[in-house]
Amino acid sequence: MPRFATDSRPISAQHPIAEFYREEFVKHHRCLQQQRPYYSESAITDVEAALTKILAQLEQLSTQANAPQRSHADLRKDLLAIVRAGIAAVDAGPLVSRALTDVVKADGRRYTCIAAGKAAVAMADASASGLGPQIQSGLVVSTIATPVAGFEAIASGHPVPTAESERAGRRALETAESLGPNDTLLVLLSGGASALMAVPAEGVTLDDKRATTNQLLRAGADIYALNTVRKHLSAIKGGWLAARTKGTCHTLVISDVVGDDLSVIASGPTVADASTFEDALDVVHRFGGAAAFPPAVVARLRRGAAHTLPDTPKPQDPRLDRTTTTLIGSRRDAMCGAVAEAGNRGYEVIRIEDAVTGEARKTAPAHVRAVLARAAGAGRPLCVVSSGETTVHVTGSGKGGRNQEFALAAALSLPEHEAPSPVLASLGTDGIDGPTDAAGAIVDGSTLARARAAGLAPERFLSDNNAYAFFHALGDLIHTGPTGTNVGDLQVILLA
C-alpha cells in the first residue's frame, strides 16, 4: 500500500495560514498512523489519498498567492487578446474548408453557389478554393461588394433591407429556379442574411418590410420574434429558396442565433418552417400592436391567419426532400477559442454554457452578480467566458448597440475599490455593435470614477441608449472592424 509521505518543503514562508493548515493535516496523518490497527487498509488508503490531495491544493493556493500580481494594464491587454482569439476561432474560411471535407464531398459534381450574410465573402472564398472548377457559378451577398473569383457580388443593406437587398434576393431566386433535377445548389448562410437578401411577398413592399423591421428592433424583439414575422412577409425566407429549385440543395450555416435553430438563422431560406401566420400576428400584437405596423403587413398576416394564403413550407413538405442543412459554427466555437487563449495566458477558466440573453440593461447586472458569486471560490487569476445575444429596448435618442449597453449596465455593478478590479468586455463577434463603428466596450472598477471625473453621468447615458458616446469619451470602445464572421456576442471577465 502506498504510504503517505510528508513534504518537507515549506508551502510558503509568506503564507502563514497555508502553513498552519499544512501542519494541522500532518498532525492528522500521525493520528491516522496510530489508529491503523483499528481500520482496514482500504480505509487508510482513502484517507491518505484525501490528505495528499488537500496538501497539493494548499501548495497550489500558495503558488498563486506568491505569483506576481497582474496589473490593471495586464488585465486589459489579456482581455483584448482573449476576445480576439474567440473571434479568430470562428473565422468563416476554416469553418467552411472543414465542412467541404466532412459534408460536401469532392465527388466531381458541379455546384451553383449562393453565399449570403456577414460571413458570405469568407465562406464563398473558401468554397471557391476548396471546390475550384466544380463551382460553375456563384452569387455572394454581403454588406460590401467584395470580388470572389467566379462569383457575382452584390452589396446590400443591414440591419434594415435596401433596394439592393431586394435585387440580391430576386437574383438568388433566379439562380435556384435555373437548376434542373441533376444540378446541386450549395447555399452558404451566416448572420445578417435576413436583411441582406429580401424579396417582399405578395401584397407588401420593401418599405413595408423596412418599417416592420425598424418597429420590431426598437421594441426589443429578439431574433426569434423578428424572423417569425420576416418569414411571413417574404418570398425567399422560411424555406422558399429551397422550395423553388428542382435540384439538390446543400446548405452550410454559421449560427448567430442562441439555440442554433436552423429555421431561424438567416430566416431559414432552405429550412422547413414550423412557425405560422398566427405566430407572426402574435408577435405584432406583442411588440407595438397593429397600429404600429404598416396596414399592408397587418392585412397580409391576417389573411394568412385566416388560411386564405399559403403558409411557408412545413416539415415533411416534399419540395424540401432533397435539401440538407448543416451547422458548421456557433457561439460555442468562439467560447472555445477564448477559453484556450485564457488558459495559455495562465488563467483558471470558468465557461458558462447558458446563453446570456434578455434586455441588455437588465441582464448585465444579474450576470455580473452571478459571475462574482461563482468566482468567489475559484483560483486566481480567473477568466470567465460566456456568450449569447441580448436585446435593447430603445426609448432614448442616443447611439449604441446591445454590447455597449450591456457593458455600461455592467459597470454600475462592478466593485469600484478592488485592486486590481475585475475587467469585463462584451462585443459582437461580427465587429459591428448596432449602428456604430465599434464591436463593443470594456469596463472595470475604475469606469465610474473616470466617468465622474469627466463629468459623465452613466445612468443618464444608459437611460438615453447613448452608450457609444459614454465609452467614446472614456476611450473604452472596442474596435475590431468588420470581422467577416458572426456567431452572436462574447463576454469575458478577468479577475486577478
Amount of beta strand: 15-25%
Mean pLDDT: 90
Shape, principal axes of CA atoms? globular
**Helix segment count?**
18
The secondary structure category is: alpha/beta
**Highest CATH level, the class of the largest domain:** Alpha Beta
CATH architecture of the largest domain: 3-Layer(aba) Sandwich
Account of the 3D structure:
This protein is 43% helix and 16% strand. By secondary structure, the chain is an alpha/beta fold. The chain folds into three domains: 16-66; 72-88 and 332-495, 3-Layer(aba) Sandwich (glycerate kinase, domain 1), CATH 3.40.1480; 92-199 and 234-275 and 312-329, 3-Layer(aba) Sandwich (Rossmann fold), CATH 3.40.50. The strands form two sheets. Strands 7, 8, 9, 10, 11, 12 and 13 form a seven-stranded mixed sheet that branches. Strands 3-2-1-4-5-6 form a six-stranded parallel sheet, sandwiched between helices. Helix 5 (120-131) links the parallel strand 1 and strand 2 (135-142). The radius of gyration is 27 Å and the shape is globular. It starts with 15 loop residues before the first helix and ends with a strand. 48% of the residues are buried. Residues 1-15 have low confidence and may be disordered.
List descriptors.
6-stranded parallel sheet, single chain, alpha/beta, glycerate kinase, domain 1, 496 residues, 7-stranded mixed sheet, disordered N terminus, Rossmann fold
What would you say about this model in short?
With 496 residues, this protein is α/β, with parallel strands linked by helices. It is built from 18 helices and 13 strands. The strands form 2 sheets. Strands 7, 8, 9, 10, 11, 12 and 13 form a 7-stranded mixed sheet that branches. The chain has a 6-stranded parallel sheet with strand order 3-2-1-4-5-6, with helices on both faces.
